[in-house]
Design a protein that fits this description.
0% strand; mainly alpha; 2 domains; 312 residues; globular; Growth Hormone, Chain: A
Length: 312
């Protein structure tokens, strides 16, 4: 994921796609539009290639053939959906805490994921989507920051197992959420400082841009934790119930998609309520991340797993 993100965000920060795909530049589509159109073309190519690889590389059999009849296969699919919702009755308290922290964590992440490049274009570069130069340059700079974010994500992933063994997975996850909240607060401070500068339509100072890029970069560490630790925690605790790993992933995903819908529907009106801009949504994200981090530190049992020694 980190390598794919690095390549994808690097592509987003490149402003010369319209030269590689000259047919994307038309009288109705300017340079910015052509770069976006070219990015979509590249997306389609990669999706087609990976879909073909998935269909040809995985030698799977239909569920109906494994059960002997299509009717039995249909019954199994219906039972799986019923089990997904029925599982909630058997979840222990610790799993409910993990689901709560997961929901709060993603309430923290989604405002950033939705508005990261827009925040850079509007609140750091002082542009608007239809003004051209400043906003477009800010979006490209935001893509560069997300690429650096993915580099840190990959590096953190290498050391994640050692951190979780030393401090405990829940405690490490909680610390990463607290770090995420602090970085969101730093973004609010950077945006406030920039808004008090009168640049007369010019570009922001290098110090402001570097500070914003550092905020994007350091968020890669808590993002690596978010992508891995909750799944490991809930899998380990549901495994003892004999419910299956696939079902545990489905339960955890419910704690992700519901906050996503809430943030997607509410962040726009919430921002407009406080005069526009992305700061109100990021502030909510900081509060949610901090709350989730404190709950993870205090409520998830802090167990450390010692690496087994091999005797020769």
């Amino acid at each position: 994921m980190a390598i794919g993100n690095i390549l994808g965000y690097a592509a987003g920060s490149f402003s010369g796609w319209f030269k590689i795909f000259p047919f994307t530049l038309t009288s109705a589509c300017n340079v910015s539009c052509a770069n976006l159109k070219a990015a979509f073309i590249i997306d389609v190519i990669f999706i087609v290639v990976t879909t073909c690889i998935s269909l040809t590389a995985a030698q799977e059999q239909p569920l109906s053939s494994l059960n002997g009849s299509a009717q039995e296969g249909s019954h199994e699919r219906e039972a799986l959906l019923w089990e997904l919702f029925g599982t909630f009755r058997y979840l222990p308290g610790t799993v409910w805490v993990i689901l709560l922290v997961t929901a709060l964590t993603w309430i923290g992440w989604f405002p950033f994921i939705l508005f990261d490049t827009d925040w850079m274009g509007r609140e750091i570069y002082g542009g608007e989507p239809n003004d051209g130069k400043n906003y477009d340059q800010g979006v490209r700079m935001g893509s560069l920051g997300l690429m650096l974010n993915s580099v840190v994500l990959g590096i953190t992933s290498v050391f994640m197992e050692k951190l979780c063994r030393r401090w405990g997975a829940g405690f490490t996850w909680g610390l990463s959420n607290v770090l995420m909240a602090l970085i969101f607060v730093a973004m609010l401070i950077i945006g406030a400082i920039r808004s008090n500068m009168d640049l007369n339509g010019g570009l922001p100072p290098d110090g402001i841009v570097v500070a914003a890029l550092l905020a994007f970069t350091f968020l890669g560490a808590p993002l690596a934790m978010t992508y891995s630790v909750p799944y490991a925690l809930v899998s380990a605790r549901i495994e003892a119930l004999g419910l299956g790993q696939g079902l545990s992933m489905g339960v955890l995903n419910m704690a992700i998609v519901i906050p996503q819908m809430v943030v997607s529907l509410g962040s726009g009106p919430w921002d407009q309520l406080f005069g526009g801009g992305n700061a109100p949504a990021i502030a909510v994200g900081a509060i949610a991340a901090l709350t989730g981090g404190l709950i993870a530190i205090l409520a998830i049992p802090r167990t450390r797993v010692e690496k087994p020694r091999i005797h020769l």
